[in-house]
Amino acid sequence: MRKNNEKKEKKIAVLCGVISGFINGLFGGGGGMIVVPTLTQIFKEKQNVAHATSVLIILPFSLISAILYVVFRQVDYSLYPVSIGVIAGGIIGAFLLKKLPEKIVFFSFVALMGTAGVKLLFF
Fold first, then answer.
1. pLDDT in tens, 99-116
2. Model pTM?
3. Tell me: the pLDDT tens digits for 44-103?
4. What phi, psi does 80 have (nearest 5°)?
5. CA–CA distance, 17 with 42 (Å, rounded to integer)
6. Exposure of 46 by Cβ count < 10 A (0-12 exposed, 13-18 middle, 19+ buried)?
7. Using CA atoms, how far apart are residues 55 and 95, in angstroms rounded to an integer?
8. Secondary structure of the chain as H, E, C letters
9. What is the spatial distance between Cα 90 and Cα 58, in angstroms, rounded to a whole number?
10. CA end-to-end distance (rounded Å), the chain
11. Are 31 and 20 spatial neighbours (Cβ–Cβ below 8 Å)?
12. CA dihedral (93, 116, 64, 80) positive or negative
């Protein structure tokens, strides 16, 4: 019986990976919206672990997507200074993730996703 569950979990993991990669490639990010809930709800990981693992999983998607965006000339290099803020924010976020309680990480993620959804619907 356990073998069937492992096969099912692997199929779900691959499917979620494909969806995450598609979203990341299409929109230039956002794969974590799929990866984090998958890791927490299906694979029962803690919030902090799911978010950290999501970043690690999304990294190769992002690198491949970035290379393709450059190859297809879809990049506005004048906006490159934004990357300085992204790097600084990523470092700060990684340190905070280690220290914040799981519930705060969860509710912060819910608030961020909810805010983004409302903004997309109405603005």
1. 999 999 999 999 999 998
2. 0.78
3. 999 999 999 998 988 888 888 889 989 999 999 999 899 899 999 999 999 999 999 999
4. -55, -35
5. 13
6. middle
7. 13
8. CHHHHHHHHHHHHHHHHHHHHHHHHHHCCCCHHHHHHHHHHHCCCCHHHHHHHHHHHHHHHHHHHHHHHHHCCCCCHHHCCHHHHHHHHHHHHHHHHHHCCHHHHHHHHHHHHHHHHHHHHHC
9. 13
10. 49
11. yes
12. negative
CB–CB of 113/33 below 8 Å?
A: yes
The token pair at 109 is 């993620």
